[in-house]
Amino acid sequence: MKTTRREFGKVALGTAIGAMSGTTLIGNKAQAQTRKAHATGVYHDGIMQLNQNESARGPGPKTLEAIRAHTTKRVGMGYSPDHVNELREGIANYYGVGTENVLLSTGSTPLLEAITRAYCDENKALVIPMPTYSTSLQAARRINAKAIELPLGRDLGIDLDAVARNAEGSGLLYVCNPNNPTGTVHGPDVIEKFVRSVMRENPDVHIQIDEAYINYTRPGAMETALPLALEYENVSVTRSFSKAHGLAGMRIGYALAQAQTLEKIDAAWGLGDVNSLAAVAALTALEDEEHITWEAQENAEIRDEVVGFFRSQGHEVPDSNTNHIFVNLGMPAAKFRAACLENNILVGRDFPPLEQTHCRISLGSREQMKQAIEVFKKALG
């Protein structure tokens, strides 16, 4: 099936807490969330989580209603109707591809693990800009694959030229677009030029483009790379329902690529079984474009306000295309994190090699961020 990139353009606290400069900063102040905490957005001892990049607003009303309507004695209580295949078909129809081009997973984590294992080994390196989402790097280390860690550009964007220069002899190039934690993004022309150049010079290397945050991008900032994944066997795109769709706890991710590519990924690692209730929720969320548009707009307005605050205080913040920001505080992230936690707000973990200057802050609701800004003023001294 021949598909142009433009046709797709419109379709558009655990270990992280403990990883704080090698020390445990929180102690008993932040524990796993309770049912009451989940309902209020406030956690043990009143801790506000601005460290997880989850939607502060949660699923849309249509999705919540679908979950309630399908929670019966059969769905969620016993053997269930096959909504998982419906989800796969729904995703395929949404993007205009075949079901063979869709691979479901229990969140993105198993997919990133599988892709790394499928294409990397002791002789085939992972090429990864840093800082970025680290699951692929962790997976490479588990299988003793070499990892080529590259610095970001001066604008904190991924240096795609540097990634391409390291493609020869490597197994996998990981590109998070928009990037976590920096929120920076590459537009469609830049991504297409990068992919075509790598595939021309090094067709045996695999390019994975992680588009988990695509629903939060600024208008016109990027387009999905799916048409390139359908054109080239060694290109894949991964997506998640954990961000703008608000379904992180239900664990639904998926990859889009050629059928033989997905078969190789599927064979490399267990991807888990998406449960039927999660499938109902995901399919409803996927089709509820009105809610996603509202979610993106709400996030954008909050993002602009928080970015404006930090810039007014003289701190550099890259233009974000996600639901988090990455601030140059001019101090170690651990110091800022500790000061915020004294006021019951938890911000992001360290992101080497920029942990001595930068901190990632997830965006909460309007009310949460108004409170947080007052805390940030104190923490900045």
Question: How would the blueprint of this fold be written?
Answer:
Elements (H helix, E strand, L loop, with lengths): L4 H4 L5 H5 L16 H6 L1 E2 L3 E3 L11 H10 L12 H13 L6 E4 L2 H12 L6 E5 L4 H8 L4 E5 L8 H6 L6 E5 L11 H14 L4 E5 L15 H6 L3 E6 L12 E4 L2 H10 L7 H12 L1 H24 L11 E5 L4 H9 L3 E2 L11 E5 L3 H14 L2
Parallel strand pairs: 2-11, 4-5, 4-6, 6-7, 7-8
Antiparallel strand pairs: 1-2, 3-9, 8-9, 10-12
Protein model, in words:
The protein is an alpha/beta fold. The protein has two domains: 13-59 and 289-379, Aspartate Aminotransferase, domain 1, CATH 3.90.1150; 62-287, Aspartate Aminotransferase, domain 2. The protein has helices at residues 5-8, 14-18, 35-40, 61-70, 83-95, 108-119, 135-142, 160-165, 188-201, 226-231, 259-268, 276-287, 289-312, 333-341, 366-379, and strands at residues 42-43, 47-49, 102-105, 126-130, 147-151, 172-176, 206-210, 235-240, 253-256, 324-328, 345-346, 358-362. The strands form three sheets. It has a seven-stranded mixed beta sheet with strand order 3-9-8-7-6-4-5, sandwiched between helices. A three-stranded mixed beta sheet has the order 1-2-11. It has a two-stranded antiparallel sheet with strand order 10-12. Strand 7, helix 10 (226-231) and strand 8 form a beta-alpha-beta unit. The protein starts with a helix and ends with a helix. The model is unreliable at 1-35 (pLDDT under 50).
